[in-house]
Structure formats: C-alpha cells, structure tokens
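Before relying on records like the one below, remember that each one covers exactly one chain. Contacts with other chains, cofactors or solvent are not represented anywhere in the record.
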Amino acid sequence: MRVLVTGTEGYLGCLTAEELLRGGHEVIGVDTGYYKHGWLYPGLEHTPETLALDIRRLEAQHLDGVDAVVHMAELSNDPIGDLIGDITYDINHHGSVRLAETARAAGVERFVYMSSCSVYGVADGTVDESSPVSPQTSYARCKALVERDVSALAADGFSPTFLRNATAFGASPRMRFDIVLNNLSGLAWTTGKIAMTSDGSPWRPLVHALDIAKAIRMTLESPRDRVHGEIFNVGSEANNYRVRDIAEIVASEFPGCELTFGEPSADNRSYRVAFDRIREVLPGYDTAWDARAGAAQLRRVFESIDLDTATFTGRGHTRLKQIEYLMRTSQVDAKLFWTAS
C-alpha cells in the first residue's frame, strides 16, 4: 500500500512511518518542519522521503497514486491552543477537513485520522466510542469537529477511520517532554524530585507511542468494510490511571526520586475509557506497554544519552516553547506559515 503520512518529523509520526515501512508499505512523508531539529537520540532504521510542506498547501498532485492517508500533523496540545486558538482551528479543524476533501477528490481510498480521547473531556464512569463527547479545550474541540466533518465525507470510494488515542507516552527519537508520563520521567531524572501541583485525582488513559503505530498499521491492513467510518479508542483498560498513580509509578522507577502532591486542581478533566472495540474489530491488536515499562524504557534512554536539564527543558522537545520561538524570531508569520527570511 502506498501511504502518505503527515507529521513524519514528529513524536508519533517518525515511529508510525517506520512501523509502516517495516510492514512492507511504501511511505511518503509530509511535514512542515516546525520540530525538524528535535532529535533526542538516533533510533530509526527506516525513514521515508518527506515533503517539506504545510498540510494547508497539500494539493491533489501530492496525492497521485496514494492509497491511504494517515493524518496526524496538527498543532499538538492544549497550551498551543490557548496561545493561538484561531490558528489552531485554521490548521487542526479546517486544514484537516480540507486535506480529507482533497484526498477524496484525488481518489484516495483510506483516510486514518489521529483523534484523541481528550474529546471525552469530563465523564462519570467509563466511556466508549458511543458515549457523548465533551471537549474542554480548543485542541479537543477541533478533534471532535474533524470527526464530525470528515465522517460526512465517507463514500463508497472513501473510507475514513478515526483513532481516538489515549495520552501517548514512551521514548521516540523525536521526543516530547510536554506529555504527562514523559514529563514526570524527565523531572525524576534531572531533578530527583516530582512536585505535583495537584492531588493527582483525575483519571487519564495512557498508550505507548509504539502501540499507536501498531494500531495505525493494523487499521490500514484491515478489510475496508471493518473500518469504514469507524471510531476506535486506542489503548487498554489496564492503562487507565489516576494521575497520582502515574507519578507514583514513575517515581518508583527512578531510585531516590522524591514525590509530593498538592491540593485538588480546578482542572476537572477526568475520564476512564473502554478499549474493547478495537480488539474486537482488529483481531490480534493489543497493547504491549504499560506505564511502568514506559518509565523504565525512558530511564534507560536517559542513561544512554546522559540527559541533562537544558535538553529536558529546552524548546526542542516542548511544542509550546518551539512555536513561541518560531513566532518570536519571525521565522513563521501570524498564521504559522514559514516566512521568506
């Protein structure tokens, strides 16, 4: 299968591209390059040819001969949405829907969209794919809007599938330290201390980056009628944790780490997620990693590269800091297009 993957120079994208290449697929990468230089360690045996292109400028000719699009190139977290909400909607909602429309017009048969369990927002009990969504942030609202609008494009010749990933964790050569388990692990390694600003009571589902990549590959390799128009939560019930549980697991994997908790937070986002459906529809899919294995993996990586504080806290591995830097230095304009300079 000839697959165009957006965001191949990102945390998840580089691992997904490698997973597909190892599976025998032909991969074309697309990335605008915001995080191009964010390497933490060498760790990829297979990388695709990558077009340096903003998804808002992808046209039909870029999709010539493409069988499937895997779309994950969006502004990637809540703090960026808080900083530039209008541009978040421009890229994450309108840009993603335009890409799907372009893919359909170009005759692309499959479209796999990286959504998020953050669309559930605040929920009592355990939610599944049939539960109402309650997105609380610009980032999450855009995910829900893309699901709605791209679902409406489904047709005999165009099959979208939506993967609602749990919060990602684990090592990637293009590392991110602005997601919970990775951030706590970096704190434990560089400071020997995790000082939580809340009591850690909210629930969060986690999923390792490699388990996301596997879900994408298996979705593409599944018969069309099994995944046409479907939504799948990506993760496992065993990886539903309270934030305090994640902190305790991480602290235990970094000997000597001191852990403290704060008062209950005003942030009421909390949700536990059911993951039965993906295992029912994609036979053989299961997650290979839990939080403890992920924290241990990160400790091994940090040891091997002697991770220092400057690298951990620098803009190379924190999305908001990098976007702020590109804007401050006028390397991108007000709409986050690269400037001529």
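The longest strand covers residues 110-116.
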